[in-house]
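[Structure tokenization] protein backbone as discrete codes

[Encoding] learned vocabulary of local backbone shapes

[Begin record] amino acids and matching fold tokens:

___
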Amino acid sequence: MKLTKLGSKLLGGLATLGLAASPIALQAQAIGQSGASNSNVLNIPDNVVLMGQSDPNVRTATAVVNGTVITGTDVDHRTALLTAASEGELPPEELRRVRMQVLRNLIDETLQIQEAAAQEIEISDGQVNQRYQTLAAQNFGQQTEAMDQYLLSIGSSPASLKRQIKGELAWTSLLRRNISPFINVSEEEVREELKRMEAEKGTEEFRLGEIYLSATAENLETVQQNAAQIVDQLRQGGSFVAYARQFSEASTASVGGDLGWVRLPQLPRELSSQATQMQPGELRGPIPIPGGFSILFLIDKRQILMADPRDATLSLKQISISFSPGVTEASAAAKVETFTNAVASMRGCGDAESVAAGIGADVVSNEIVARQLPEQLQASLLNLQVGQTTPPFGSVNDGVRVLMLCGRDDPETVGGPTIDDLIAQKEEERIQKRAQRYLRDLRNDAYIEYN
């Protein structure tokens, strides 16, 4: 496994510590608000003259938060965990922005840990180590030492990851004590939601990831440039989950930007018009919206209250040929032509073994859920009748093969969420909104010194 992919998996694993993502984009609250009106509330003059010298590219990397020191090493180790989840080396300007965002996240994390301690919520070393071991088991097969070595190899440390785990556990515990018990969703409200879903049965809903960056009239151009740089890094292989966790200003940052399943009317118009044109795995942005910019990633889409064909179980036979090392192009082409003609002559799955034996091909039978196959093959297979095959695919190095459909068990029509499911979902949405205000209050009351 590549280190970059592993770094992304570790960050994705950490996202599961947070509460479920709200299915409504949080920045919708900013619709209709302009940056200028926000600044007018503060009575800021139109012509601002800064007193003293200021270089926006020079920022200190350490801070003291209510007496707790965040060191340059803390920032370095956390930055290394983020950059390891990206393909390639970050350019200097991008790395500078990442480090400043990491420092802001460390400040928030420190405030969360301090607040938990003030409220006598103890996050024990045992809890942190248990979660750390779970991540090790997911990525290294129970070998905690292997994950230790990996973190050190990328310039991070086990201590840095454990501190992040402690911060997320502390915040989750605070929300469960101070917010969750006071959230109420009526059954009547949920029944109305169920009626609406039934009325919209068969229409599409989308599972989206989002990175939201707020902007005002004064910093609009700078924020747009920052968003464009993030998009460039994502297109070059950067981890969407990692960048969402570090840069997004929506509450869903803690879960890697995952908005959950949403319908187009739930999104701002600017986002819904983009989402409806996207295919799973596609990235778009930066998209201007009232209050800032969004970067969208379409994780998946489905039809409301309808079974997804990709959940069908397929019985397949893989028929394949391989090539000897050093085979000439002409010989390989001739062998592929013989293979293609032989496959075309097969009279269904019962004929596969005998025909394959005659041309020296191998046959392997298996059952698999359609969505577990590469996306390019899913549509092809789901459109086949029993006994038909996909077009040949592969290469001289990997071998050439076809998949023959020998059976298909379609999924049952889904029954939709229960009342309890919807109550839990709406409660989580409201918890996340109050959590944002809670953290904002902690920031407002904090004493922070930058070194």
The domain at 309-409 is CATH 3.10.50 (Chitinase A; domain 3). The chain has two domains: 3-305+419-450, 309-409. The radius of gyration is 26 Å.
